[in-house]
UniProtKB/TrEMBL annotation, chain A:
TM regions (residue ranges): 95-113, 125-144, 208-225, 232-251, 257-277, 289-306, 312-331
Membrane topology: Multi-pass membrane protein
Protein name: Ion-translocating oxidoreductase complex subunit D
Catalytic activity, EC: 7.-.-.-
Cofactor: FMN
Keyword Transmembrane helix among UniProt keywords: yes
Alphabetized UniProt keyword annotations: Cell inner membrane, Cell membrane, Electron transport, Flavoprotein, FMN, Membrane, Phosphoprotein, Translocase, Transmembrane, Transmembrane helix, Transport
Role description: Part of a membrane-bound complex that couples electron transfer with translocation of ions across the membrane.
PTM-bearing positions, type FMN phosphoryl threonine: 177
Localization per record: Cell inner membrane
Class of enzymatic activity (EC top level): translocase
Automatic annotation (TrEMBL), chain B:
PROSITE patterns assigned: 4FE4S_FER_1 (PS00198), 4FE4S_FER_2 (PS51379)
Family the UniProt entry places it in: Belongs to the 4Fe4S bacterial-type ferredoxin family. RnfC subfamily.
Database matches in SUPFAM superfamilies: alpha-helical ferredoxin, Nqo1 FMN-binding domain-like
InterPro entries, sorted: 4Fe4S_Fe-S-bd, 4Fe4S_Fe_S_CS, Ion_transpt_RnfC/RsxC, Nuo51_FMN-bd, Nuo51_FMN-bd_sf, RnfC_N, Soluble_ligand-bd
Gene that encodes the chain: rsxC
Main location group: membrane
Domain 4Fe-4S ferredoxin-type: 367-397, 407-435
Main EC class the enzyme belongs to: translocase
Cofactor(s) of this protein: [4Fe-4S] cluster
Cofactor binding, note field: Binds 2 [4Fe-4S] clusters per subunit.
Record keywords: 4Fe-4S, Cell inner membrane, Cell membrane, Electron transport, Iron, Iron-sulfur, Membrane, Metal-binding, Repeat, Translocase, Transport
Name of the protein: Ion-translocating oxidoreductase complex subunit C
Classification of source organism: Bacteria, Pseudomonadati, Pseudomonadota, Gammaproteobacteria, Thiotrichales
Positions that bind [4Fe-4S] cluster 2: 387, 416, 419, 422
EC number: 7.-.-.-
Length: 343, 523
């Protein structure tokens, strides 16, 4: 009997890029549901638009680059990028803002750098940061979170907001995000106690935002449990953010928000479990992951506190992405049978 | 079960695999009846090919040497049974690239006649010195039977400046499916232990550690009982956690002793010698019974054979014959490999013989076409997490692919043991190990080419140098001649003048003397 030749190993594990990406999508569900609870149609339109644009662009780029379309389109990596962008964009973001963000993410950050696996920067964060820099006004108008938001902003109003660019009654419904509110009011020389007194803040941080963050945390813990991500990045990112916030908070709690506030408002949880953990653009060695994520946490705190933007996870991630080759080089693990080398 | 409490060390990486051991380890091992034809490759070890000592048409006895071992890194080969040599020719052998090699084809006469080819036994090996025993081990054709087939006698040749602390016996058998060492330890514990004692005598050590993965409780218990009944206090059985690839020599040494074999080095450098249980048994049989290595335990298994089993096989038996012993192929038979699913060599045909290195024939049901297409590396780092050598497989892959071999070497390409863990876990289904094999082969051939070029250049330079020297010497000689000629002529002139002067002086003196004499006479 004759057989085909192949090289070992002849068995492979069950993990697969598409399986991993799907797990990430599952883990995003709780946080997304909470967002939908508070922002209703606004979050749903964000998601649908982002995914449609992402897949279209992915298909277009694969065709242009003459790559096999099917295995790549079915790897879900574009969906993950789209989803991450959708939940980071303000609810009811106009369609063109999302389209443009996806162009930056999929076309520029991903495919122009060689496609899946070759992009040095996190595509979703490039899309987000590009929009934040180019359209700061549109990017910071968040509708005020209201319980069960479908009731407050109806479908018609939502469609109008997304496709026709808003209406008169809209301004009354918007509100600054908690990080934004703190930043602006601190600028007006109010103390944190005075700022917190306005009722926009809840148990942990901003009222709606704290629950969104808790839901991201839950999804992230599930990813850890499923071994989709390792503990290094979330622990180092949240750890360094907590440490920085803790030190300054102890120095002056009237000017510097508590670590709890930093962890549960803004994108800290989303960043720690879903964004900084993007394997392609993150550091890959165990020690390197600690430095990389620790750096993101520290930069996030610095930009939030002294920089020009209320939240800074996107910028910090991009910044540390740049350092990854260097970090990886200096954090190679010690190889069996060799003496410890550089780093 | 008796358990020794022993501190074990943790090695990084590793995988929990599906072991499938139960499908082949339930029945006792049977000795395979002779096939119609045995194909015995001359080279079954790492090193040089031994010298053929028989010719076509010769009758050979069982155990008779058919290739001898005079020379370094050569191990002899013996006839596995009695019969006639019908051919000496190139036949396909188990090799990753499907090479053929010189084989002796033996037609058994069915008598299984030893004649008087048995080597003279040493019933009391303790009275024999290590050197003699090592010669015997080599003469019996014994090589590492775990698959690496390194000549055992050389491994046992240790130097006095690094005393051997521990003899490690590798009974881990960490590859899925393979159960032949398990069965050997269950059925022949005493022969193994006696072999271990012989080795301890040769390398002069007082401590042996037998590492067995804890998914083989029966083997552990049997071996422990055998140690107890021998009253042997120097040999210790250690149950180690089941984790692929704990049976890799370097990894096992780390787990059992905490020591790491230096990169590019040998275990003896850290005071350890490591052998396989089947090798230990073969040593016992060679020393105490005088039998050369002519058969071995091996596993025939996988979903592609009807009755997976362990067999004791005369070396040279074609794989096809072994498959028949295991009930033949099933309809699911899609791929054939020698060795386990992680590191085995894929075989194209079942006309290939079982050799000293063959521990397993695996017929699997996974077809080539079921392989997923490889996606780009997403740098997820899973490969690095699983690597038992703490390498960065994705970097090695990157550099091997871009043919940046210097970089690949900097990232310790040659410390890769090709265990396949990285390729197993890769979610992009990249055949990582293939890239490492490719890079290693390229680097080796580049090195060889460079060595050759260096040699050629050296020769050329030497040639030029010789011409140059010849010229120089000629010139020097010439110069010397001239010089000499010059001095010669100078001296000649002076001497001539001197001589002339002297002659003149003498004349004068003669004349004066004549005058005086004349005057005297005249006076
Ligand atoms: S496991 Fe595969 S995809 Fe992941 S880093 Fe390694 S080579 Fe790349
Ligand atoms: S094959 Fe090599 S690189 Fe891959 S896990 Fe094994 S030792 Fe590491």
């Amino acid at each position: 009997m004759m057989f085909n030749k192949r090289t070992s190993p002849y068995v492979t594990g069950k993990q697969d890029v598409s399986v991993i990406m799907r797990q990430v999508l599952y883990a995003l569900v709780p946080g997304t549901l909470v967002l939908i609870w508070y922002f209703g149609w606004g979050m749903i339109s964000n998601l649908l638009l982002a995914i449609v644009f992402a897949e279209l662009l992915e298909w277009g780029m694969l065709t242009l680059r003459q790559r096999p379309v099917r295995p790549f389109l079915s790897d879900y990596s574009a969906v993950v990028t789209a989803w991450l962008l959708a939940v980071a964009m303000p609810a009811f973001a106009p369609w063109w803002l999302i389209a443009l963000a996806m162009v930056f993410a999929v076309v520029i950050a991903k495919h122009l750098y060689g496609g899946l696996g070759y992009n040095p920067f996190n595509p979703a964060m490039i899309g987000y940061a590009a929009m934040l820099v180019s359209y700061p006004v549109q990017m910071t108008i968040w509708p005020a979170p209201l319980d069960f938001s479908f009731a407050h902003i109806g479908l018609g109003q939502a469609v109008q907001q997304v496709f026709a660019g808003g209406s008169q009654s809209w301004d009354a419904l918007t509100a600054a995000t908690p990080l934004d509110a703190v930043k602006v009011n601190l600028g007006l020389h109010k103390t944190l106690n005075e700022i917190y007194a306005n009722g926009q803040f809840g148990l942990l941080a901003g009222q709606a935002w704290q629950w969104v963050s808790v839901a991201w945390l839950l999804g992230g813990l599930w990813l850890l449990w499923q071994r989709i991500i390792s503990w290094h990045i979330p622990v180092a990112l949240l750890g360094s953010l907590t440490l920085m916030a803790g030190i300054f908070w102890m120095i002056n709690p009237q000017v510097y928000s508590s670590p709890l506030f930093h962890l549960f408002s803004g994108a800290a949880m989303l960043g720690a479990f879903f964004i900084a953990t993007d394997p392609v653009s993150a550091s890959t060695t165990p020690l390197g992951k600690l430095y990389y994520a620790g750096g993101i946490g520290a930069f996030t705190y610095i930009i939030r506190t002294w920089g020009g933007y209320p939240d800074a996870v996107a910028f910090s991630v991009i910044m540390l992405n740049m350092a990854v080759p260097l970090i990886d080089y200096y954090t190679q693990p010690r190889v069996y049978g060799t003496k410890r080398q550089q780093g | 079960m008796i358990q020794t409490l022993r501190k074990l060390w943790r090695n990084p990486g590793g995988l929990h695999l599906d072991y499938h051991k139960e499908i082949s380890n339930t029945k006792p091992v049977v000795h395979v009846p002779l096939a119609d034809e045995l194909i015995i490759p001359l080279q079954q070890h790492t090193g040089y090919k031994p010298t053929l000592t028989v010719a076509v048409g010769d009758y050979v006895y069982k155990g008779q040497e058919i290739a001898s071992h005079t020379g370094f890194m050569k191990v002899p080969v013996h006839a596995s049974t009695s019969g006639t040599i019908t051919a000496i020719e190139e036949r396909p052998i188990a090799h990753p690239s499907g090479l053929s090699d010189l084989c002796v084809v033996l037609k058994p006469d069915g008598k299984d006649d030893w004649g008087n080819t048995r080597l003279s036994p040493y019933p009391d090996y303790t009275q024999v010195d290590g050197e003699t025993l090592r010669l015997r081990i080599c003469a019996a054709g014994i090589v590492g039977m775990g698959g690496a087939v390194f000549p055992s006698a050389i491994k046992l040749n240790v130097h006095d400046n690094i005393p051997i602390e521990t003899l490690v016996i590798n009974g881990a058998e960490c590859e899925p499916y393979i159960t032949c060492d398990d069965m050997l330890m269950r059925e022949q514990p005493e022969e193994i232990l006696r072999g271990v004692q012989i080795m301890m005598h040769i390398i002069n050590t007082q401590h042996a550690l037998i590492g067995i993965e804890d998914n083989k409780p029966e083997a552990i218990a049997t071996m422990q009982a055998a140690v107890a009944s021998l009253g042997e206090r120097r040999i210790e059985i250690a149950a180690i956690p089941t984790l692929y690839p704990s049976g890799s020599e370097k990894q096992l040494i780390k787990i059992l002793t905490g020591k790491e074999v230096p990169s590019g080095g040998r275990p003896a450098q850290v005071g350890i010698v490591c052998h396989n249980p089947a090798t230990a048994r073969a040593i016992y049989r060679a020393v105490v019974l005088g039998e050369p290595l002519i058969d071995r335990y091996l596993t025939v298994t996988g979903k592609g054979v009807a009755e997976p089993c362990n067999l004791e096989v005369p070396l040279g038996t074609p794989v096809q014959h072994l498959i028949e012993q295991a009930g033949g192929y099933t309809a699911a038979a899609k791929r054939l490999a020698m060795g386990g699913p992680m590191m085995g060599i894929s075989l194209q045909s079942d006309q290939i013989p079982a050799v000293k290195a063959t521990n397993c024939i695996l017929v699997s049901d996974v077809a080539e076409t079921e392989q997923q297409t490889a996606l780009p590396c997403i740098r997820c780092g899973r490969c690095a997490e699983s690597c038992p050598a703490s390498l960065l497989p994705q970097q090695l892959y990157w550099y091997a692919r871009s043919r940046d071999f210097d970089k690949a070497e900097q990232y310790h390409l040659f410390d890769c043991i090709e265990c396949g863990c990285c390729a197993y876990v890769c979610p992009s289904h990249i055949k990582l190990v293939d890239y490492y094999r490719f890079a290693k082969a390229e680097i080796r051939s580049q090195r060889e080419a460079k060595a050759k070029a260096d040699l050629a250049r050296e020769r050329h330079e030497f040639h030029l140098e010789r011409i140059e020297r010849a010229k120089r010497e000629k010139a020097e000689k010439l110069a010397k001649h001239k010089e000499q000629a010059k001095t010669n002529t100078d001296d000649g002139k002076k001497a001539a003048i001197q001589a002339a002067l002297e002659r003149a002086k003498a004349k004068k003196a003669d004349a004066a003397a004549a005058q005086t004499a004349n005057g005297e006479t005249s006076a």
